[in-house]
Amino acid sequence: MNDFLTRSAEYLPLLLNGLWLTVAVTVLSLVLATALGLLWALLRTSGVPWLSGPTRVFVELVRGIPILVVLFYIYFVMPELGVDLTAFQAGVIGLALTYSCYIGETFRAGIEAVDKGQIEAAKSIGMKRPMMMRRIVLPQAFKIVMPPYANNSVMLLKDSSQVSVISVAELTMQGKMLASSTFDNMTVFTLVALLYLCLTIPLNLGMGRIEKMLRRSR
Amino acid sequence: MISFNNVHKAYGDHEVLKGINAEVGKGQVVCLIGPSGSGKSTLLRCVNGLEEYQKGDILIDNDRVNAEAKSIHALRTRVSMVFQRFNLFPHMTALENVMEGPVHVLKESKADARKHAEELLTRVGLSEKMDFYPSALSGGQQQRVAIARALAMKPEAILFDEPTSALDPEMVGEVLQVMRSLAEEHMTMIVVTHEIQFAREVADSVLFLDGGKIVEQGQAREVLTNPQHERTQDFLRRVTHPV
Hints:
- Chain A: It is a multi-pass membrane protein.
- Chain A: Part of the binding-protein-dependent transport system for glutamine; probably responsible for the translocation of the substrate across the membrane.
- Chain A: This is Putative glutamine transport system permease protein GlnP.
- Chain A is an all-alpha fold.
- In chain A, 83% of the residues lie in helices and 0% in strands.
- Chain A is built from eight helices and no strands.
- The longest helix of chain A is centred in the first third of the chain and has 43 residues.
- The mean pLDDT of chain A is 93.
- By secondary structure, chain B is of the alpha/beta class.
- Chain B has one domain: P-loop containing nucleotide triphosphate hydrolases (Rossmann fold, 3-Layer(aba) Sandwich).
- In chain B, the strands form two sheets. Chain B has a six-stranded mixed sheet, with helices on both faces. In chain B, strands 2-1-4-5 form a four-stranded antiparallel sheet, with helices on one face.
- In chain B, helix 3 packs across helix 4.
- Chain B is globular, with a radius of gyration of 18 Å.
């Protein structure tokens, strides 16, 4: 045990560097994925065929591709098309794109779950669609989607480890490098797992808190 | 002020309105009665464009109701609606529900809208409940908030779609009372209802619908106490003596 602690102290600074990068990738991707997801959901529920149709195709395509392939595509193929991206940028874009489709589907389900009577009531006081979405539908939809959205966020955090394949030196990548140079797999990966838990457990608790607050507010 | 000229509506092959002709004068209360599936709610919902109709015209002071046209939004601010299931906005207090339309659609100042909303909620007997969320209100209270919300738009007419059907029996009276007071102030109202007693006492005229057609129409007291048509007689017998 003592041994574990001394070695941990030795490894921790490197792993913490990775941890910060994991947080940065996750936060940026989540913000981007949420904004895009909302956009997809609004387009899909717009009732305008030339908006909802292509969105649907796009979402289905991206959802059908493994996240690793998306990351490879953005990092290795885009430069051939003249778009040069750093590994970090490619990682964030790839994660955000993939998760925007998951989150978008969640939001769409939430929007569709809002009682039709609410839409009729909003219409009956003369609201046009944008105002109706903003003032009546979305506030109620957000409450409905909070649990699956929280779940998506935690999944995104964990999937941020995937960007290690395009050499973003986040937590998993740091762990792998450290393990292969020290051969101390046990200590390193235990620490890596613990550090992920240090992020996921508070995130889960925080989301649960928000959920409870939302439920009480109505 | 609201006229129906040969209004037809069908869902695919299924015709639900087969040529409705009727007239609702300013300040009149008209009750639509009839068995379920007769088309009375559909007809009401065509008036503010929540449903489309395919043939004929519905005119509100000579403006044709067209659910597809841009004009429908402005038209809806002139004709409010009260729903069977209240449809209050659950994320807003009673007061906010009533202020929502005036502030955001009519662009009234918040202060004016609040003052008016408070007056209206007081009027429907809910001065103590203004800051309550709908989930904390009884069905009867929610429906009275919904009526206040409809009134807040300063409408030319109000449509009621079975306003008491979802209520527990002991709460029906308080809602009908509010509607009765509106009628006394000559608010133009079209009411889809099964409350025959209310129709008889409050309505100016009654339309009896069956199978998408108006079977009988006329003065409320006349139609309801002395129905001419066999189907009207049969229907009234059933709703007034259910056993």
